[in-house]
Amino acid sequence: MNILFAASEAFPFIKTGGLGDVVHSLPLALNRLGHDVRLVLPAYRDVLASVDALVELGFWDLPGASVTHRVRVLQAHHEGLADYLYLIDVPSLFDRAGNPYVHSDGFNWPDNAERFTVFSRAVAQMAKGIPGTDWHPDVVHCHDWQTGLVPAFLSMFHPRPKTVFTIHNLAYDGHFSHDDFTRLALPPEWWSPEYVEFYGGFSMLKAGMVFADHVTTVSPTYAREICTPEFGYRFEGVLQSLGDKLSGILNGIDLDIWNPASDEHLKQTYQADQPWCKAKLANKNALLKKAGLVSGKAPLLGFIGRLVEQKGVDLIAEMLPALFKTTDAVMIILGSGHMSYETELVTLAEKYPTRLHVHIGYSEDLAHQIEAGCDLFVMPSRFEPCGLNQMYSLRYGTPPVVNFTGGLADTVTDASTMALTEKTANGFVFHDVNADALLAAIRRALSIYGKPAQWQSLCETAMRQELGWENSAKKYQALYKK
Ligand code: ADP
Ligand code: GLC
Fold it and tell me: Which residues contact 417 (CB under 8 A, 6 or more apart)?
């Protein structure tokens, strides 16, 4: 099948979180199943700088916010991609440095509604035909609110390809005003609760849910959770009404990029079926040295992620003083996000300079080194549609400590006595989202860490877990065929 992937970010061109990883690795997996998967992204400045062999395919004039934009379609190639990459080039909207969604002061780009409406109009246009090629997609697979209007625009074309819309995170819903709706010249009949209107404004995420032929989200548990008021962000009614049109397919990970046996970021590579403890220890010591922490036998905990409420960063900050007081554990945190969390963590690191290292920023290199060098990975997310970091940590033999939610619940098996005996345990799960429950789970982990044979067996179960895309890519294939 011919499948067009439309998204607002993709590794290795531009990435702010797991969406970028999935949009890179799922097409490769579908390609291995024999499908021709092409990806379309906005032509951000950083993306244009990172691709080669750019070819100009053609131009369209498409409506923006009270103006018409000259939209250039580019074709690019990159050795990391199986098939072509298309770029939607509108310099006034996308030729900007840095983050695709927010300004350097952390606030959303003020023209985001226009940026992603024009992008979505262009993607819909591509589905009709791409200038200079005779390639037509059978399915257009859209990701998150930035592409939510694609199925909506496509619903006006006949014939048209089928559409799949994947929700990666319901907390970001692309909510804009009635003024935006009018200026963007969206069809007036869409302004209704049945379509895109949502609590006084309109939501591009809702457009994807309502207009796509099928809606998926990135784990079976999250697919169930979002139909409840606790996790539904006010979309639970819309999501419940989808019935069989909504399903959860668990993300996989790229087993080549996240592979401790070949990872070029590491001091020493290792794998489960060869003696690995010494190599992992070498990575731990290198990481401790890099972080300016004292090397020794103390267990090393790690966290990587966006510093936002979702990730439970406040729970980590709250429990650390008690952890440091009652154990010898040390911790490394890598992330960036809300200024208040950044400040709180940096202040804690100043208070406990020998126990806590905080790196504010984004670093692929350090992320790989933390996955490999730490003994435990801490991921106390309040909700987690899927989560990739716990899967990376499993693969690197760094058992995760997680809250029982979303994809964390679907990938981590708690080290209960029975699961340890049956060798199915791969991490530590807690059930109440508070600092005490997190601390209790970490303490439980540290007591097993103190029993090397049991710990090694737990790590090996984690490292041997099937985490690749094979099964899930087949599920998407079955969905596309249906
Ligand atoms: P989310 O998509 O909600 O941010 P995931 O666990 O699905 O969470 O994916 C996060 C991805 O982003 C992982 O690949 C992780 O390593 C990466 N990441 C997040 N923050 C950073 C950072 N500060 N430096 C490097 N990589 C990061
Ligand atoms: C989102 C979610 C995360 C998920 C990722 C990729 O950013 O927060 O849980 O793993 O998308 O699907």
Answer: none
